[in-house]
Amino acid sequence: MAATKGGLFHRDLGKEYPVIVRGEGIYMIDEEGRRYIDGIAGAGNVTLGHGQARIARAMGEQAQTLAYCFSAFFTNRPALELAPRVAELAPGDLNSCYFVSGGSEAVETAFKLARQYHLQQGRSQKYKIISRWRGYHGATLGAMAASGLPPQRNPFVPLLPEFPHIAACHPYRCEFAGCEGRCNLTCARALETAILQAGPENVAAFVAEPVVMAGAAVAVPPPGYFEEIRAICDRYDVLWIADEIITGFGRTGRYFASEYWDAVPDMICFGKAASSGYVPLGGVVFSDRIRQSFVDAGDSFAHVFTYVNNPVAMRVCATVLDIIEEEKVIAHVAETGTYLAERAQLLNAHACVGDVRTKGLMMGIELVRDKETKAPFDPALGASARGAALALERGLSISGVAGVADWVRGDDLRFYPPLIITREQIDEAVAIIDAVLGELDQLA
Ligand SMILES: Cc1ncc(COP(=O)(O)O)c(C=O)c1O
């Protein structure tokens, strides 16, 4: 075996990816000078676009003034100023923040907050986290245990705590009879059954994404779903954690997607857009009752990461919020999101399109062999990978995911661009997707 130095990059596995050297707004430029529309915002991160000089300046200034201070012994002004600002944007009484350095860490943080809260409340048996199939909560072991994507979980199952999963709310491929086309919330009520099966005395929390992305492109529960979840959680002293790592900070046209339901979670996890991808950042914003429990117990949170409250990350997030406010980015997403939804409907005319779903600036296109029966393509055709490759050839980066019907069969394409995208740029991207679907029609 030839010795190689460098790492385990995709090219080491025989896959050639473009080497991106520069970014400008919604575009990325590779070392051969080719331009691509970043149609997945670097997978949900670069929401304010590439090359934001204002964010880069804030990072540089903060790094020169104070790049780091250890959060277990000190605090810093940028963190003290940012926490109430994020809390102000969060719904209900979610008034306290804990900042870490990514989405998976945020989810782990929420799980441990839930556990420590229940211990303080004298409910020492409560430790189980209930989650949903099709959910994605991160790559670390606790977050992966809660995730419901078998291809990602299965290799690591021996390392994962055995927590219960219920079906996600996914109207297009609903697992419950009697729900065809119109959700009757059986999927929400399944949470109560799962809690009773696990023993309510053992269940600490329920975690779910308000809008599923990784496990089913843009699966949006109907009105009533999270209201039902809230009621069930309250009945059994179970904390509800909303994973808004992909939806938080504007993606759906509100600061947090949870605002679309008339129910407030106990915690919201955020990441990605909080720094627009400029530095690693995630966090949890949690309710007054959780905060009060720590205060009453005089208990510090048994949870220290090196990059908690990192001053540079705090400054980046503050600058991201300045830009969102000054450039009215949330209103822009609401407006362009409505435009995207209209344009997306045109794609339904393709023979290979089973369903097109949007929420704000997220779009998922489910590819099928047969529209009527929703029968997926033969996985050997690689329809989703082919779709993503055809789009890239035309200058648009989108993601194509396989296995979305039953973990083996099923394909979709996903488009979730930077939030600063204009109507004209949406037209440009949708025209490319339309052409790609025209080619995939040949497979149907
Ligand atoms: C909903 C959701 N939760 C958690 C994560 C994990 O975040 P990270 O990759 O920053 O650890 C992701 C990442 O895609 C996500 O989309």
Features:
444 residues, alpha/beta, Aspartate Aminotransferase, domain 2, Aspartate Aminotransferase, domain 1, 2 domains, seven-stranded mixed beta sheet, four-stranded mixed beta sheet, 15 strands, globular, binds pyridoxal-5'-phosphate
Number of helices: 13
Shape: globular
Radius of gyration: 22 Å
End-to-end CA span: 43 Å
Helix content, binned percent: 25-40%
List the helices and strands and how they pair.
Blueprint: E1 20-24, E2 27-30, E3 35-38, H1 41-44, H2 53-65, H3 77-89, E4 94-100, H4 103-120, E5 128-132, H5 141-146, H6 150-153, E6 165-166, H7 186-198, E7 203-208, H8 225-235, E8 239-243, E9 267-270, E10 282-287, H9 288-297, H10 311-326, H11 329-347, E11 353-359, E12 362-367, H12 383-393, E13 396-397, E14 399-402, E15 411-415, H13 423-440
Parallel strand pairs: 3-13, 5-6, 5-7, 7-8, 8-9
Antiparallel strand pairs: 1-2, 2-3, 4-10, 9-10, 11-12, 12-15, 14-15
